[in-house]
Design a protein that fits this description.
Elements: H1 2-7, H2 19-23, H3 28-37, H4 42-52, E1 55-57, E2 60-61, E3 64-65, E4 69-71
Antiparallel strand pairs: 1-4, 2-3
Length: 74
């Protein structure tokens, strides 16, 4: 992508966010309150809250899956 932009003389802006550091200790209740304060529609807030509720994840390596872990923060 960077090379193509350079070839065509186009500007390219990139942003890298370390989500692990940015969101590993987010208070979900405070996040909802902050979204309300800035005027995010309630329907969207509820959708976001639903994606954060009962979060579970596993890692798959060489077709073998690790045990599932729950995430209550972040």
């Amino acid at each position: 992508m960077m090379e193509k932009n350079w070839e065509h003389g186009l500007d390219l802006h990139m942003l890298f966010i370390d989500f692990e550091q940015a969101f590993d200790s987010v208070n979900r209740r405070k996040l909802s309150e902050a979204m309300e304060e800035v005027g995010i529609p309630q329907k969207l807030i509820k959708l976001i809250e639903m994606t954060l509720k009962d979060m579970k994840a596993a890692v798959k390596i060489n077709n073998r899956k690790t045990r599932t872990s729950e995430f209550n923060t972040g």
